[in-house]
Amino acid sequence: MPRPISPGTVLRRARVGRLATADQRGHPYVIPICFVFDGRAIYSALDEKPKRVAARRLRRVRNIEVNPTAALVVDAYREDWRRLWYVLVLGPAAVIAAGTPEHLRAVGLLRRKYRQYRRMRLEDRPVLRISPRRVVSWSAAGPGGRVRVR
Question: Which stretch of DSSP H or E encloses residue 112?
Fold first, then answer.
């Protein structure tokens, strides 16, 4: 029987996840993000892709500043439901200011994972950090099943 892939491996390999934040009144906001997991924290850049407002004014940033509770879901949907799986990460999020050692390290990790970031000026832009406090994983294949991360 194939060995299952650990949630940590899934988080290292996955290319996209869905970040959930909530404002001070608990109104949810969910968006897809690119991210990197270093074994302790998850980082996501507030990159140069077109946005309607400045990075510090993005809804996810404003939500985190007033309510640091966050969740990240990485999943796979297949028409063959025996191949479904997800990893859910729950924990506080923070906005990491540009220029700090943690920020520079996160930018380096993000650039290694996503070639598109190698052409973007991330040094002057904040990075989001999620500190996992609880990780829940599930696979339709069961505890001994194998998940495939693209």
Answer: helix 101-113
The string of pLDDT tens digits covering residues 101-133 is: 999 999 999 999 999 999 998 998 999 999 999
Q: What are phi and psi of 106, to 5 degrees?
A: -60, -45
Nearest Cα to Cα of residue 42 among 133, 138, 141: 133
Q: Which residue ranges form the domains of the chain, and what is each CATH number?
A: 7-139 (2.30.110.10)
Which residue spans within the chain are E strands per DSSP?
A: 17-22, 28-33, 36-37, 42-45, 69-76, 85-96, 127-130, 134-139
Distance CA(150)–CA(148), nearest Å, equals 6
